[in-house]
Amino acid sequence: MMKDCQAFRVTLLLAYLVLVTRGKDASATEIRVNTSKIQQINKTIRMEGGDVVDCVDVNLQQAFNHPLLKDHKIQMEPSSFPNGLNITSPFLHDVFEAHPPIVECPRGTVPILRNSRMKHIAGKLYINGVISKDNQQEVAGIKYYGDVYGARAIINVYEPKVKKSSKDLSATSIQIDNFGPFGLDSIAAGYSVAPNLAGDSSARFHVSWGEEGGQSKSCYDHTCPGFVQVNHNFVLGGRLQPVSVYNGKQYVITVLIYKDLMTKNWWVTYGKDNTPIGYWPNSLFTYLKDKGNFTLWGGYVAGPTASSDSPQMGSGHFATEGYGKAAFVKGVQIVDENGNLDILNVNKALVVSSDSTKYTVAGYDFDKYGMHMYYGGPGNLV
User: Fold this and answer.
1) What are phi and psi of 86, to 5 degrees?
2) Residue-level pLDDT at 218
3) Which residues pair with 114 in a beta bridge?
């Protein structure tokens, strides 16, 4: 019971750290070259809707300010991929891919989403390395207790309603943790909606992580050193488009986190073609150096009023409404120690909802392509 409670707390804490950065549309409208040696920005791209992206030398990105990465040699591409990626889960219904903004940064650089509020947000949330004790959190999804070397899922993308006046967020992601004797290491990838932090109600793609203790060293995207991006087109924190419509077209993202068999780095790939975005170097971690021992797929809400005045999760409708109305996660798989994609051991998986009056899970089942479920709910926005 204590282990389960600890996992629940840490999972939701990390969800609060899957923050969003400001911006909207993906099409570039203005390009400005900047040769400043101080900023080390190769090019700046201004996009419709207000997003600004700086193309930064791949060797000078924020990741390498981390003391453990001082002499790190960049791995520009994975040495391997999990076996079985060519076997995809079929859909009984028509679904389409949601896409992040794609920019044309020169090779040898990576796009970094600029946000004038970023330092303020980071400082506010990470003062003394502790999130406010008043933070409220809820979750609905699948927990898995067992050794994992990666996790994959196809995630239905909606834009759940979160009150603009609140400081809450609603997110859906894959998370892999490893609990150690003095804390934990945690990594995650998925999307979130947080108007107070983003300045809009868009679904935006993020990676986040916490190292050795979780609370004291948790980060997202490029807000602090750690994650090494190698893709010169993919904008972390960028808006996903299009998104699903209730009783209409359904859009998905495919997310994979896995451990490279040769380098032991933890890679993140995106889309049905498994395009590599970047990785967390193995040297960052204490407990995730070898493997994860807890994984979670599903939805989260977190913030000062996430329980008392809860935002929507998923589509904002209960799981029992099914396809086209409730959000889903499907093709849920893990990666084993030999680099093979595999279905979950049913005896180690657990369906969870922290408050079934607000958020539910239904349609939970296994097939040869993995596990699937519907999840979510209206929260207090009924």
Assistant:
1) -80, -5
2) 58
3) 52
Q: How confident is the model at residue 115 (pLDDT cuts 50, 70, 90)?
A: low
Question: What letter represents residue 206's amino acid?
Answer: H
344-377 per-position pLDDT tens digit:
998 999 999 999 999 999 999 888 778 999 999 9
DSSP 8-state assignment for residue 83: B
- Which among 150, 160, 230 has a CA at the least distance from the CA of 15? 160
Cis bond upstream, residue 242 (ω within 30) = yes
Write out the two tokens for 270.
């995106």
Backbone angles phi, psi at 205, to 5 degrees: -85, 135
Residue in the block written with tokens 């759940």: 160
Radius of gyration of the chain (CA): 19
Which residues are bridge partners to 10 per DSSP? none
Tokens of 191: 């999307």
72-90 pLDDT per residue, tens: 999 999 999 999 988 777 7
The H-or-E segment that residue 376 falls in is strand 370-376
**CA distance from start to end of the chain:** 32
pTM, 2 dp: 0.86
Cβ neighbourhood burial of 84 (10 Å; 0-12, 13-18, 19+):
middle
Q: What is the largest CA-CA distance in the chain?
A: 57
Say how many CA atoms lie within 13 Å of 195 toward its Cβ.
12
What's the pLDDT at 127? 27
Residue 268's nearest CA partner among 97, 187, 276 is 276
State residue 292's pLDDT score: 96
Residue 156 CA, chain-centre distance (Å), reads 13
